[in-house]
Amino acid sequence: MSTDASGGEATGVPVTVTADAAREALSLLEGEGMDTDVSGLRLFVQQGGCAGLSYGMRFDTEPEEDDQVTEQHGLRVFVDPASMNYVGGAKLDYESGLQAAGFHVENPNVESECGCGESFRT
């Protein structure tokens, strides 16, 4: 399901969320005492990093009026219109391994990434 916060159908290709990412984010949301029926994970793009743009994520209690809201595996993801231009069609995953664990954005819009994978250019 993908709508804008006013209830209308969203434009653009939504962000997809893996079951692992949703499970981890929901666990963190609940740990913060947030209502997972209303709250969600905000994915956004900001200026920064050696390649020019970087991803940001935070929990929000509710979407903004013009956000695209995607709900998958019980997790609500909020993306503002400007960020959607960069992350539309991306996949949010959670990876855990021996050296690092965390959320990872697989973005088909990226032309190049920096060596550490923290910033990108479209």
TrEMBL record:
Gene3D superfamilies: HesB-like domain (2.60.300.12). SUPFAM superfamilies: HesB-like domain. One of its GO terms (biological process) is iron-sulfur cluster assembly. It holds the Pfam family Fe-S_biosyn. One of its GO terms (molecular function) is 2 iron, 2 sulfur cluster binding. Residues 15-118 form the Core domain. NCBIfam families: iron-sulfur cluster assembly accessory protein. This is Iron-sulfur cluster assembly accessory protein. It comes from Halorarum salinum. The lineage of its organism: Archaea, Methanobacteriati, Methanobacteriota, Stenosarchaea group, Halobacteria.
